[in-house]
Amino acid sequence: MSTQPLPAVPFLKIPEDADPYLEGHRCDSCGATYLGERDVCSKCGARDQMSKVKLPNSGKLYSFSIVYRSFPGIEVPYVSAIVDLDDGTAIKGNLIGVEPDPAKIEFDMPVEVVFDDALGRKDREGNAYMAYFFQPKAG
Ligand SMILES: [Zn+2]
Most buried pick, 5, 72, 78, 134, via CB within 10 A? Predict the structure, then answer.
């Protein structure tokens, strides 16, 4: 029995006694970061030089699209976004806290990564999932 939510994606880490964070892998040779594990850097070709890193919780909006049709049970419209984190890692996710209206969303606007319940999804044992979202940075 655990009240700890499960991560919705493998690169979301939920420490027992600290805030959740996204985990990337950084090439020790050229500094490029990636989501998920890999052995070879696709930027510089270095092999077996990847270190785990905690990704920053802020970045800026690189691109977005407003989704009007999705799977049954998924509330639409919502904003699907690609964000460049402060360390240059590109990551895809949903932008929340803003109207799904192109007039309200700007490219390069500062966003922060937030962690929340994955929209009520639960596994067969009833465990909740935690997911990450982007929201416009206050101020
Ligand atoms: Zn590299």
Answer: 134
